[in-house]
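To: structure subgroup
Subject: Chain for Friday's discussion

All,

I'm putting the inputs and outputs inline so they're searchable in the archive.
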Amino acid sequence: MAVGKNKRLTKGGKKGGKKKMGDPFLKKEWYDIKAPSMFGVRQCGKTLVSRTQGTKIATEELKGRVLEVNLADLNNDEDQASKKIRLCIEEVQGRNCLTDFHGMTLTRDKICSLIKKWHTLIEANVDVKTTDNYVVRMFAIGFTKKMPDQVASSCYAQTAQIRKIRKKMTDIMTAEAGKVQLRELVKKLIPESIGKEIEKQTQGIFPLKDCLIRKVKILKKPKFDITKLMELHGDGGDDAGVDMLRPENEEAVNTLTADVAAAQEDE
């Protein structure tokens, strides 16, 4: 490079210099996350959002945000640590974000611990519409099991048996999820009752073990209804009322009722 040609280096850079950035966290505020009533722990965390500024409203920025929480934290039960629940923020009231169920997955270490040699892995998935118009895609997983007193090291299922089992899995998932609302379906997913039903009904084809619902996705939601969401979060709040200190007099009557009774007597 010829000497003196690069004028930018000689003049000491651009005018004005770089603008000094303040701490971005000073412009943010914390909101509490409220889990739906089907879980034990309702206050399950906090989320951060930039303060309302101009047309960017903080509550609108929060809506639609998807959070992932471990089921062990939601139910205070360490045995349920192998499931992760996805919650979607539907409504913001004050500093509380009201969430709804958005999906479920098994943790990677749980799935890895199930997969072993000498077994057949069978998977099935199905799209189901619940009675409250949610379209849910469910994925099931199961493994073949050795017979009692079996000598052979492997227990592989034949292709025809696998097809029958897969058909049975999809039928059970459709029946279990298609007749209930989403909240009832979540209550079935937590204790793994659908997996137990699959194990029970496939015994005649090939004995299975570790039948689990591996993943649940919500594909379509119905139109947002605030009353249904409030039902889902319906813990009564502080409007439960106060117990009466003394019992009500049995002879006490409503004034309107008393007037009507008096008018009838006069007639």
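Points worth raising on Friday:
The beta strands are 28-34, 43-50, 66-70, 83-93, 96-106, 121-129, 135-144, 208-220.
Residues 130 and 178 are 5 Å apart (CA to CA).

D.
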